[in-house]
Amino acid sequence: MTAMKKIEENLKKEAKRLLEGGEVSVVLAYGRGYDENHPVPFAARKAEDADSLVFNEYCTFNLARYLPKYPPKTKIAVAVKAADSRAVVQLIQEEKVRREDLVILGIPVTGMKDQKTGEVIDNKTTCNMANPVIHDILLGDEVHGFQGGSPYDVLAELEAMSEDARWDFWKKEFEKCIRCFACRKACPMCYCDPCFMDASRPRWADKSPTTDGHLMYHLTRFYHLAGRCIDCGECSRACPVDIPLYLFHKKLAKECEAMFNQAAGMKIEDKPAMVNYGNQDSDEMLK
Amino acid sequence: MQNPYIPMPVEVTKIVTEVETNDIKTFRLTFVNKEDEENFKYLPGQFAELSILGKGESPIGIASSPTQPGYIEFTVQRAGLLVTGLVTTALHDLDVGARMGVRGPLGNSWPIEFLEGKNVVVVGGGFAFTTLRSLIHYMLHEDNRSRFGDISVVYGARTPGLLCYKEELAAWEKRKDIKMHVTVDKGDANWKGREGFVPTVCKEVGPSPENAVTVICGPPIMIRFTLPVFFELGFAKENILTSLEMRMKCGIGKCGRCNVGHKYVCKDGPVFSFEELDRLPRDF
Amino acid sequence: MLKKIALEKFGHLVSAIMEKGPLYAPVKGGKAVDFQEIRNPADVTLDFYNTAMSPKFVFFPQSEDMIRYSLGKEATEAEPVSLNAKPSVILGVRPCDAKSFEIMDRHFLGAGVIDPYWNDKREKTTVIGYAFDPSTAADPADFYNTLGISASDTAGSDIFMIRTDKQLLFKGITEKGDRLLKDLAVLEQGSKTEEKMFDDMAKKSSELKTRFMEIKDDAIARKFVQVFDNKEFWEKATAACISCGACTFVCPTCYCFDISDETLFRDGVRKRFWDACMFTDFTLEASGHNPRPRIFQRYRQKVCHKYSYHVDKYGCISCVGCGRCTRSCPVNIDIYSIIESASKL
User: Fold this and answer.
1) Under an 8 A CB cutoff, do A200 and B86 touch?
2) For residue A200, which residues of chain B lie inside 8 Å, CB to CB?
3) Which of C345, C241, C226 minimizes the C-alpha distance to C302?
4) CA-to-CA dists, residue C278 to A237, C284, C294, C296, angstroms
5) β-strand partners of C65
6) How do B194-195 and B212-217 pair as beta strands?
7) Which residue of A has its CA nearest to C62?
8) C-alpha distances in Å from residue A97, one per residue of A264, B173, B229, C34
């Protein structure tokens, strides 16, 4: 049996067990969509729902984004791959969900594929880690010896550009934006309600799709994610007009890691970088 | 063909602060272009979009009656609690002589023909009384009064200071062709009138459903408790009318924002009977 | 009227049309093909299944200026933007999208109020439809057959274009279409052979099948009224939805818009731009009250509007089964599955 099929089996087994035993009231995992290559996020609430769960290489969704929607103290089991688990850790750090309310079903896996193109998802668009950073139960065997490459390799071309060339590049990319806000809603860390874009007094940015407005929206969103983005790549996959959002997030993540010596969502004991003061923090931005 | 999205210029000629909290004002507007004034033919119950360029538009019920020619009036509350509304706040900052825009008349009106020959019970709460005031002026006008039966009014606010149109209420009290029952939830030292919630007063007044129609406008909580009173009194659903409010933008049934089921509140409403509302999906 | 042109002369046709006015046609940019105003004839491509975004922006731009103003200390100067669209052509519109123009006409031109912005552009634009290629399979998300649209449907097109292996054949469907065909000297007259070829190819195209279920407008409209209060059904169907708005913006028949005044220092513009009933703040009122705070309520509004309210109001379903919403959804919500489940309840 392939590794993915084994994970699916274990997922169904654990979900059934947890629901039957009343340990959790909902299992957040994946279900079948309109065809094999297009699964959907699925919340199993009854033991028999567990039979509808699936897992395959197209289950790219980051289920952590649904966690803040549940009332506190709801017992939730959530299936997470590596980056997804980092999102869960980050949410715990930010106190949007409590560790004791979660049963984390870790999925160690490589070879996930993009639903739109069928290409393998790698370090170009995600953090490309293979094993979850936290788990209660592992649904598959831990992956050993996986060389994914640095998640910041893809920035080389961008970093080689002059400042003007980079600005032109981003202006051209953001011109395509249709302000559908799929990126904002797909992101597990964009849980603010209301979002700064929804405020009318003061109106931080206009809602209409002008290029200036696009820059205002995206740049502000990225900066709100500094030190918090866990590089799952969901925003880039969600974008209907293929803007390479991952390039911006990765650049910010790289700079934050260098300045504050901390990667987002790795350990639950960490405090979020932008909220925490440490003597050894970089003074770069004051120079 | 007139572009229905472009407002007509108007000038503010009078501003009256209606309530002691200073957040409700009545604005009297006159058209800058005579042609616009002639084309603005409306009936009580309709609304218009008040436009301030740079801020936006706000849909407000027309408080004046077509029997008061030469101007149109709107009673506007500065909306919002923590953060006040963009347009209504800008309106409240205007002085007499300021220019702004109006688009309208929009929506359907109180069904005058349906009301003719019947007794009309007008029930209003707080500042939702505005289009009811328009209706009362219309019905009381010497050209129209004979077409309607008995007119009784139940109007309540939380305190005496929050009653709108105080001078007109006093004038109507003195008339013989209309029965006023003004009430407040809680009176003050100077208040000599009635005390009691609007639904309670309706029950006490106990209007007969015989050949009668009631027109109710008020905050949701008032409507929730007033409706059962009228059902108990024997009023049929098609004889209970109300005016709905929703967030609107275009006001002409194109932008898709204000629908309840297949009806657009801005175009097929805002006036609906409860019988019509029953047939719409229970969206909210 | 039937006209033709050899495939390798397609660039000449594009240039000829561009001489008459703006031309909107499919262009490949990055990963997807989308309609754009053409600057260079070589940009136009006919090799695609369907565009990522719908062509509705040609008549209903994503952002449209209405009034330009300048705020002054004493008075504000304002100027309504005049409506003077140039005669245009949109080429390469798939049958489902051509049909969507007719559906949107019912809304923008109906109910006793004519929207001047839609009308201005619509009157002056000629639509050249484009049959689906019968040698490629339909995308699994598509279901335009269910809405009574075939892969070679001419409804909504002024001219219908079919591609053979060597030629492009153009048939005039409306008077407006015939006028344009007559005007384009670069096109050759089609003979009886070509007329037969057109009919044969049209027939072959229409054999391309999409997902299909039998639905009748009135019956499905009533069904959704019946199912409206079934909270469990809606919550389950929309559990994965993240309320983004991508589906609305790619949809050819979604028309909700917002109107806003946007000012920089003293100068500004009142404009209208696309909005989505899926957004959290769509019905949010100044008082802070939101009639539709939950995702399932907003999704229910979208589906019931398309399959029920629109039928009651305008006499047809407001969906053409193009599959874009399903393809662009970040979590693969499939409206076809929801309609199917609802109709079985």
Assistant:
1) yes
2) 83, 86
3) C241
4) 20, 12, 10, 10
5) C271
6) unpaired
7) A209
8) 16, 61, 47, 41
Torsion of CA B138, B139, B145, B150, to 10 degrees: -170
| Closest partner CB to C285 (pick from B84, B247, B261) | B247
Query: Measuring CA to CA, how many Å separate B270 from each of B106, B258, B277, C109?
Result: 9, 10, 11, 22
Q: Cα–Cα distances in Å, from B210 out to B118, B198, B206?
A: 9, 21, 12
Task: State pLDDT tens for residues C248-297.
Answer: 999 999 999 999 999 988 999 999 999 999 999 898 888 888 889 999 99
Q: Which residues pair with C80 in a beta bridge?
A: C67
- Position B1 pLDDT exceeds 70: no
Set of chain B residues whose Cβ sits within 8 Å of the Cβ of C308: 261-262
What are the C-alpha distances in Å from C301 to residues C3, C87, C305, C308? 45, 36, 6, 10
pLDDT band at C186 (very low <50, low <70, confident <90, very high): very high
C273–A39 C-beta distance less than 8 A: no
Residues of C in contact with B126 (CB under 8 A): none
Contact status of A208 with chain B (Cβ, < 8 Å): no
* Strand duo B212-217 + B240-243: pairing: parallel
Yes or no, beta carbons of A200 and B84 under 8 Å apart? no
Q: Cβ of B86 under 8 Å from any chain A Cβ?
A: yes
**Assign residue A35 a region: left if phi > 0, alpha if psi is -120 to 50, beta otherwise?**
beta
Domains of chain B: 8-106 (2.40.30.10), 112-243 (3.40.50.80)
As for the ipTM of the complex, it is 0.91
Q: Which residues of A touch C250 (CB under 8 A)?
A: 180, 240
CB < 8 Å to C257, chain B: 249-250, 254-256
Question: Which range, of B98-112, C66-80, C317-331, averages the lowest pLDDT?
Answer: C66-80
Query: Any CB–CB contact under 8 A between A287 and chain B?
Result: no
Question: Which residue in chain B has the smallest CA separation from A203?
Answer: B86
Pairing of strands C77-80, C63-70: antiparallel
**From edge to edge, which strands make up the β-sheet containing B179-184?**
B194-195, B179-184, B151-157, B119-125, B212-217, B240-243, B271-273
Contact status of C242 with chain A (Cβ, < 8 Å): yes
In chain C, residues 199-238 whose CB comes closer than 8 Å to chain A: none
Instruction: Establish whether the linkage from the previous residue to B105 is cis, with ω within 30° of 0.
Output: yes
> B186 and chain C: CB distance < 8 Å anywhere?
no
pLDDT at residue number A267 = 92
**Is there a contact between C287 and B79 if contact means CB atoms under 8 Å apart?**
yes
**CA dist., res. C25 & res. A181, Å (int):** 26
Please indicate whether, in this complex, the C-beta atoms of C292 and B284 are within 8 angstroms of each other.
yes
* Separation between Cα atoms, residue A26 and residue B200, nearest integer Å: 47
Residue B11 CB neighbours (<10 A):
15
Chain B positions touching A201 (Cβ under 8 A) are 83-84, 86
> Between C246, C284, C332, which is nearest A34 by CB?
C332
**What SS3 state is found at B16?**
strand
Amino acid letter, C100:
S
Is A201 part of the contact surface with chain B (CB cutoff 8 Å)? yes
Q: How far from chain centre, in Å, is Cα B139?
A: 14
**CA C41/CA B110 separation, integer angstroms:** 58
Alpha helices in chain C (DSSP H): 10-20, 95-108, 116-123, 175-183, 192-205, 217-227, 231-237, 246-250, 295-304, 310-314, 324-328, 335-344
Q: Give chain C's length.
A: 345
Its pTM stands at 0.91
Contacts of A33 in chain C (CB under 8 A): 332, 334
Q: What angle do CA A126, A179, A274 make, to 5 degrees?
A: 50
Structure tokens of C114? 């004519």
Each residue's pLDDT tens digit, A133-163: 999 999 999 999 888 889 999 999 999 999 9
